[in-house]
């Protein structure tokens, strides 16, 4: 071993969590190696948040162009030129890659474009066969899309493939009712595809407020999206000319689709990581088991992000990694991420967001008598002007005599941007009285949060 192969910290995976951990550890003076065989930035930058939001912005623009036409703008209606848009999207992503490379250089992190595999609790072998020794190791290998084990599954695509599309498919089936199905379905529908969702359960976005999810579905239906609930997929079959049909458990066949996407969850990337060589424990679902300090059962091995069972969100992976490095190298022995009141947004059309408990969770926790729910259902001004049917629904969930705000749920234009500030307030333990005492900003959608009665 020598200075080139000995490190204070070896980070396996250069996505949201791995990069954040590497940068923070290096800023505290640690000597860091980072192993990432693919593009820097991981899922979020390459096949997740960033390209997804770019597509959402394109779809949102398309919907605004339609509204503009209703308002008297004389516009020539032409569909999006996907190829041109993708050039803009990928240029933006290339800028993020370049900025990561520059920051890695500047912070003295040794970046190896290789896979890593544990040989023992302190040794990582990279895919070139070189062995590195680390006092500590951070596992940040993220996850990948899961395909259900049905015959013909290879005929279906996954979210990674969505970002390879250069043209919009005419008819699309999405299997799943979670946020990836809703987001990709919304984008495709808004950009001109005919989209059908096939959902195993009986509602969209389990874990989000049920009323908001139902309103979102209704809105999407008005834009032409079709949804089938209680659907048990049994098989995919080729239907000629590259098309695919879905067969359900009763043998019922769907119409042929040009593309079928699975949005049926993600699995942690732990295969071939050599975890067994170091004795790192997994939980029953295959995630790397960590405690509230992001420590695994092996003293010097830590894990953050989607390879663990926490909320699969980029800011969660980043925050967990930074706090861990502050604790290990930054002289902050109590530093750790508290997994509560984490705001999250689904980039549907319109977006839906939540922070804190749903009404159902609050009732289960505090009892019906202690919970009060306030609602505002309204038409955002642009939609009212254009006489478009889109409605917003905001819900405030309060608990106890002092009506502490324990949950805020927003569906509607601007929900994605409005939620962040209220997330700060809710973490600080505000009551409904605090909202009532706050003077509104008029005319906005956001003012409805402080005006709910
Ligand atoms: C379609 C989609 C949309 C999303 N939208 C959002 C959103 O809007 N907002 C949000 O907050 N989150 C979103 N997410 C989730 C977010 O992308 C993830 O939570 C986040 O990327 C997790 O970061 P991570 O560092 O744990 O893993 P990743 O970002 O997945 O990075 C893991 C990295 O490890 C590398 N790796 C794997 N195995 C090895 C190995 N053996 N050796 C070396 N490297 C390895 C991989 O190549 C990868 O680059 C989305 C995800 C998807 C799929």
Report how far apart the termini are.
67 Å
Mean pLDDT: 96
Strand content: 15-25%
Shape: globular
Low-confidence stretches: none
Percent range of helical residues: 25-40%
Supply the helix-strand structural class.
alpha/beta
Number of strands: 20
Determine Rg (CA atoms, Å): 24 Å
Spell out which ligands are present: flavin-adenine dinucleotide
Main sheet record: 7 strands, mixed
Number of helices: 14
What can you see in these coordinates?
With 453 residues, the protein is α/β, with parallel strands linked by helices. The protein has helices at 16-27, 42-47, 49-70, 82-106, 159-162, 179-190, 210-222, 275-278, 314-329, 359-366, 381-385, 415-427, 432-436, 447-451; strands at 6-12, 32-35, 110-112, 116-120, 123-126, 131-139, 143-145, 171-175, 194-198, 226-228, 233-238, 244-248, 259-262, 266-268, 301-303, 344-346, 352-356, 371-378, 392-399, 404-411. Strands 1, 2, 3, 4, 5, 6 and 15 form a seven-stranded mixed beta sheet that branches. A five-stranded antiparallel beta sheet has the order 16-17-20-19-18, sandwiched between helices. It binds flavin-adenine dinucleotide (FAD).
């Amino acid at each position: 071993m020598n200075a080139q192969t000995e490190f204070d910290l070896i980070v396996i995976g250069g996505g949201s969590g791995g990069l954040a951990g590497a940068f923070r550890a290096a800023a505290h003076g640690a000597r860091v190696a980072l192993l990432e065989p693919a593009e820097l930035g991981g899922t979020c930058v390459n096949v997740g948040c960033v390209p997804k939001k770019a597509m959402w912005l394109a779809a949102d623009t398309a919907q605004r162009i339609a509204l503009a036409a209703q308002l008297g703008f004389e516009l020539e209606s032409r569909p999006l030129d996907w190829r041109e848009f993708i050039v803009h999207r990928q240029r933006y992503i290339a800028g993020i890659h370049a900025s990561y490379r520059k920051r890695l250089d500047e912070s003295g992190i040794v970046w190896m474009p290789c896979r890593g595999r544990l040989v023992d609790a302190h040794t990582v072998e990279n895919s070139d066969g070189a062995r590195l020794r680390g006092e500590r190791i951070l596992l940040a290998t993220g996850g990948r899309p899961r395909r259900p084990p049905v015959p013909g599954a290879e005929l279906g695509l996954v979210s990674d493939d969505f970002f390879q599309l250069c043209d919009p498919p005419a008819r699309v089936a999405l299997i799943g009712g979670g946020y990836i199905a809703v987001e990709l379905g919304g984008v495709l529908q808004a950009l001109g595809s005919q989209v059908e969702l096939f959902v195993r359960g009986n509602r969209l976005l389990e874990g989000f407020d049920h009323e908001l999810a139902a309103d979102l579905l209704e809105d999407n239906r008005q834009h032409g999206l079709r949804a089938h609930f209680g659907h048990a997929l049994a098989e995919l079959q080729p239907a000629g000319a590259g098309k695919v049909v879905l067969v359900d458990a009763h043998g019922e066949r769907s119409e042929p689709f040009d593309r079928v996407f699975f949005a049926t969850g993600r699995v942690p990337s732990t295969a071939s990581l050599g975890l067994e060589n170091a004795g790192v424990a997994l939980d029953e679902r295959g995630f790397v088991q960590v405690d509230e300090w992001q420590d695994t059962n092996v003293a010097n091995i830590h894990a953050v992000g989607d390879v663990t069972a926490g909320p699969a969100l980029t800011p969660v992976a980043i925050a967990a990694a930074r706090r861990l490095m502050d604790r290990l190298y930054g002289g902050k022995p109590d530093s750790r991420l508290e997994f509560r009141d984490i705001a999250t947004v689904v980039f549907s059309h319109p977006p839906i967001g939540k922070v804190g408990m749903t009404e159902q969770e609050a009732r289960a926790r505090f009892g019906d008598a202690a919970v009060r729910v306030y609602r505002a259902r309204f038409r955002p001004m642009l939609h009212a002007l254009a006489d478009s049917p889109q409605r917003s629904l905001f819900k405030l969930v309060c608990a106890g005599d002092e009506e502490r705000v324990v949950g805020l749920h927003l569906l509607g234009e601007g929900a994605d941007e409005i939620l962040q500030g209220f997330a700060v307030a809710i973490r600080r333990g505000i009551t409904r009285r605090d909202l009532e005492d706050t003077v509104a900003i008029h005319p906005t959608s956001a003012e409805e949060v402080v005006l709910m009665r």
